[in-house]
Amino acid sequence: MNFGHREPPEEPEINFIPLIDLLLVILIFLMVTTTYNQINGIQVRLPKADSPTQTTEPQNIHLAISAQNWQMNGQVYQNLDSLLQALNKNEDKDTWVIIHADANIPYQKLIDTIRTAQQAGLSNITMRTATSP
Q1: pTM exceeding the 0.90 threshold for the entire prediction
Q2: Four-residue CA torsion sign, 80, 65, 88, 94
Q3: Overall average pLDDT of the 36-43 stretch
Q4: Does 44 map to a domain?
């Protein structure tokens, strides 16, 4: 029996350098052998304009409702009949009616205004909302 002085065993350590070398070889192999497919698509030829073109967009109708009257594009109307006559003068039925309603008006006045615009044949009706500060 040898009771002499023994050295403690060396702790094993992991050497990552061969692993990194192997991964680089695999990466290079995959890069060389990979095929890149071109995705088939449709060739589109877009027209070229010689000069800028003007597109005519329909004018929106801005309709403001207050407790006293209606204002449409700067004109003041005192009742729904005169408003209906003014809305009937609009020939383009795809025009948007943008309603700017006062917060203090009764709901019935807003509903009557929407019905009046519908009677004039305008179906694109929206309301503008105010953003809160």
Answers
A1: no
A2: negative
A3: 73
A4: no
Give the residue among 75, 83, 89 at the shortest CA–CA distance from 112: 83
**95 assigned to some structural domain:** yes
Direct distance between the N- and C-terminal alpha carbons of the chain, in angstroms, rounded to an integer? 91
Which residues, other chains included, contact 12 with Cβ-Cβ below 8 Å and sequence gap of 6+? none
Q: Is residue 110 part of a domain?
A: yes
Q: Look at the chain and report how many structural domains it folds into.
A: 1
The per-residue pLDDT for range 48-99, each reduced to its tens digit, is: 655 555 555 557 888 888 888 888 888 889 888 988 888 888 877 788 888 8
Q: Is residue 91 included in any domain, yes or no?
A: yes
- In DSSP terms, which residues pair with 99 in a beta bridge? 63, 127
